[in-house]
Specification:
The structure is a homodimer. Chain A is of the alpha/beta class. Chain A contains 11 helices and 12 strands.
Chain lengths: 280, 280
């Protein structure tokens, strides 16, 4: 056994440690402690694989599940041990008490924030960015981050008026993508637009009111997609600040697409659906 | 006032009528009564506009909301009156008691099933169909129906192992698309695949295991997309029965896309993102 495993199983659901983990379900506590929770084998596997530097503690429950579940968990724990992470076994009751999830699936990691400064992203000369402003629903924000990852975007930038990316529902709905690409948070939308434009990217607003169809946009030059609130779209001043306002065509009688659907189509249009050597 | 309005406001939340509407939240009751519920101004507007023949009763609460809400509701009620529908005012408490929704938004319609026989769809010589099998999450099923509508599919066919399309969560998440295009339900998947193939359409399985990339599929000939369960995809025998198994390329580090995202990309690839004269 590697020496970073503490072998005393945690069983007291009333302990300060359990309560402090559980409290990370609240935004104010996350911001004060500068910590958040990744829950379940998929999220924990991805943070261990891609951002082990951000993992403060990892808690797991000895599995009494199927063989497949046990193997999956062992793989995650082996990777965590190999990365030299602090690992602690807990009882089922403690894991449930720590987690926001209805079914925490055996493992949670307490992580330090993964967001990066805007300069870090712009210094890399990005060619394809995603900017979210006023996106309030955790599931939508997480799904767009997952889509940005799948489409090969260089980074996702969230304005200060957007949902907290460390909300457990956001973390879950990114299905690990939160740890795959650089994410910027907390910058006013006007600053994001100015800085990204100054870095040479075209600003493309995705909005049902757009007069340019998605298929007609020049995506060969570097660009950033700007997406707004799920219910009311982009504010007029944000639309006005963009170079092009783009809408996804509607062929049938539907009034609109939802944010995640429209975002997926725009981002994949950027990625190009053509066969490329670097895809899998 | 048109004569089809009954002017006595319903106020008794314990009445048989209110209870019988409320009971439509349960699948067994929906199937026995051959009725379901469309809730909120958007769904009700769409059923009144596109399938008024299926509306049995319409209940509304006099609005005390914003001017915009009142105008929206009046528009729906005017259209319902023009269609000669049975309309009844109810108290706020009655509307809440009737509805499955947390916020029923002032209006509900009790509707007869909108699904059509498979023959009705195939007799129209469809060129672009969507087949769902084992889709269990109401939100996913509704979102795919919405996407099929937006992409201009000719119909959606759900196998008998899929979620009930009259589940209030499905109805809500279609945002009216349930009433826009023909929908077939309750047919075994093997029969759906046989009949659709016999009608001359290629069967395209959408599955992460596919060896054909989305951008490489011939979509010029008539075809049906076959989509499976959100967690475990398509069953091996369904994949084997299809002509091509297609996967959406992943450009970044994401492991996969969710069902709604993958479906949206596939369906829009069929629609073609090119400018067409018939789009809006």
């Amino acid at each position: 056994m590697p020496r970073n495993d503490d072998h005393r199983m945690l069983t007291n659901i009333g302990s300060d440690r359990v309560r402090s983990v559980r409290a990370l379900g609240r935004r104010a506590v996350r911001e004060r402690e500068r910590l958040f929770l990744a829950e379940g084998p998929q999220a924990v596997r991805e943070v261990v694989a891609h951002r082990p530097d951000t993992v403060q503690d990892l808690y797991f429950e000895a599995q009494v599940g199927t063989q497949a579940t046990d193997i999956r968990q062992e793989t995650v724990l082996d990777a965590a041990r190999a990365a030299g992470l602090s690992i602690r076994e807990v009882s089922h009751e403690v894991l449930v008490a720590m987690s926001d999830a209805v079914a925490p699936q055996g493992v949670v990691a307490v992580c330090r924030p993964i967001d990066v400064p805007l300069d870090t992203v712009l210094d890399e000369r990005p060619r394809f960015l995603v900017i979210l402003t006023n996106v309030r629903d955790p599931g939508n924000a997480g799904t767009v981050i997952r889509g940005a990852d799948a489409a090969g975007a260089d980074a996702v930038l969230l304005s200060d008026s957007s949902v907290d990316i460390y909300n457990p529902k956001v973390v879950r709905s990114t299905v690990g993508s939160l740890f795959h690409l650089p994410i910027v948070t907390g910058v006013p939308i006007a600053v994001l637009l100015d800085r990204v434009r100054a870095a040479g990217l075209a600003l493309l607003a995705a909005d049902g009111s757009g007069d340019t169809l998605l298929g007609d946009v020049d995506l060969a030059r570097s660009h950033a997609w700007v997406m707004g609130n799920e219910a009311w779209g982009l504010e007029p001043d944000v639309r006005a600040a963009c170079d092009t306002v783009v809408r996804v065509p509607i062929y049938g009688k539907a009034e609109s697409l939802n944010l995640a659907m429209a975002a997926t189509l725009c981002l994949y249009q950027s990625a190009g659906l053509q066969k490329r050597p670097d895809i899998r």
